Structures are given as structure tokens and as C-alpha cells.
Amino acid sequence: MTSPGRIARALAVFGVDEVVVYDDMAGAPAAPPPEDPHAGKNKRQQDGRRQQGFNPKSQHSHDAESSLTVDVDPCHFLTHLLSYLEAPPFMRKALFPIHPNLRLAGLLPTMDMPHHPNPIDTPIAYREGVTVEGMPPSGKGTLVDIGTKGHVAVDDEIPPKTRVTLHLPQGDHGPAEAVNPAAPREEGGFYWGYNVRKASALSAVFEECPHEGGYDVSIGTSDRGETVAKVFPDQRRPLKFKHMLVVFGGPKGIEFAASNDPKLAAMGVYGSGTSELFDHWLNILPGQGSRVVRTDEAMYIGLSGLRRLWDSN
């Protein structure tokens, strides 16, 4: 349980907006995942409420898996825990049913991100909430639990147990408005947690990118790459980009994932040719003293070394 916690902490500490967990054994035969009976309903709800504060981070199909998945589907296990840790603690019980994957969740570290309520912090104008049963005093709209003693009301009609993003310009006890989940970051300038995406293969990381136009800067990490200092010699000049992708490999590296990806294999991309997938191919720790750098270790090392590329972006 320690690695998922360290990965989540790295995402929070460095302000990462999206994490993609990809399968580096995509070519191996596997049983199809169990069907989520709520998938169609969730998709319709998401399409209808995206502009009124509905936060897609609240959509989890993890309850479709009823048993521990750490061995049979490690990607599912990791995305489950990362999603759980990203959610504010007060709403986890409502959004995450009891599941074997979460049996030791109490041992995981706290994230303490800006959207996780903390009574000693200076109040900010945005909150994450989860809708609850009941009717506001006005007789219309929806009650939302924001982790304080009382609930707030929004005008929108939203089903219970739905995560929403709220704007409260007058504080926790003033009027609340459901807003786009990106508003705290884009309008308020706050880091507001990360989205979790599961990719079936390395190629799917790129193909299923949710951003229009894809990732405009992509970086792959490998002990066969160039040093950061050589590729980015100007320490004072941040890169200009909208969406940067930094890919870390498993114990056998990104090359192993590419070799097991049928789509990349058909394109002739494998082994040393894996670097062709990326704009930059970096060795984040030249002269490493251990044969293998764990993924959670590589994330701290890599994000520390690369942070200057986006600090002023």
C-alpha cells in the first residue's frame, strides 16, 4: 500500500492535473473487465451536468469489481486508490463503496490539497461537495455537503451522491453556485487535485487524451535517454505549452511497454525506437546506484528535475 500513497503524494506535491495509469502488458491475453451496470447512466449524467458543476472525478466504476484486484488487474487497483485519495475525506464514504482494495486505506498518507477542507486554513471561495438526500428550504434545488456542519443549497437538480464543484463568494454559509470543475484552477488560481485515467496500453495514453489537440509536449524517461541539462540547457526559460505529458515506465521501462503494445508493434515502434513516441527522451538520474529505480521514486526525481519547465508557464 505504500507505493500508491507515495505516487498520490507526488501528484499532490507537484500539482499534477492528470495521472494516466497504463498497462505495460497490453499484449498479454486478459479477461474482459466486468461490465459496470451504471456506466450508461453515469455517462448521461456527465453529459448533462458538466457545465453546472458536476465533477467527473466522482464517477467510479470500481464497485463493478467486487474482489481485490492488486494481482489480477494492478492498473484497476492503482486507479482505485488514486481516485480514493484525491477525493476530499468527508465524501469518500458516499462515493466509494466498501471494497477489498480499500481495506488498508487507513494506512495511506493524507493529501491535504486545497480542496480538502482544513479548519485552520483561510477560507477560499471554492469548495468540493457531494449532493445529499433532502430538499433545500426554498423547496427547489439540491442540498450539498461541503464538509462543514451545515449543508449548502444550489439551484440545480442533481442526483444524490454526485460530486460537484461549488463557488461560494461569501463563504461557506453564503449562496453557492455549481461551477465547472476547472473553475478553481482556471479562474481562482488554485491547484484542485488530479483526474485519474486508465489506459489499456501505452498507445492509448496518447490516443485517448482528453485534451483537444492532444499533448503539445511529451517527455519519456529512460536510462538510455539524454540528461535534462543537455536537452534543456537554459535554466531560466520555461517551456511554452498547454498540456505536458511526462511518462514513467515500470520496472522494465517504457521500452517494455512499447514492445507489448500491439498497435506500436504494428508501427515498428519498440526497443530503442520507443523514443520516437516522444518529443524528448530523458535520463532523469544519470549514474543511478541501483539497477532499478521504482516508479514512485522516479516520479519524485523526475518532477523535481523538470519542474522548472512549467514553473512560470
TrEMBL record:
SUPFAM superfamilies registered for this protein in UniProt: alpha/beta knot (SSF75217), Nucleic acid-binding proteins (SSF50249)
Composition-biased stretches (Basic and acidic residues): 35-50
Family as reported in the entry's similarity comment: Belongs to the class IV-like SAM-binding methyltransferase superfamily.
Domain of life of the source: Eukaryota
CDD domains linked to this entry: HsC9orf114-like (cd18086)
UniProt region (Disordered), positions on chain: 26-67
Name assigned to this protein: Deoxyribose-phosphate aldolase
Pfam families in the cross-refs: Methyltrn_RNA_3
Gene3D superfamilies assigned to the protein according to its UniProt record, in alphabetical order: 3.40.1280.10, Nucleic acid-binding proteins
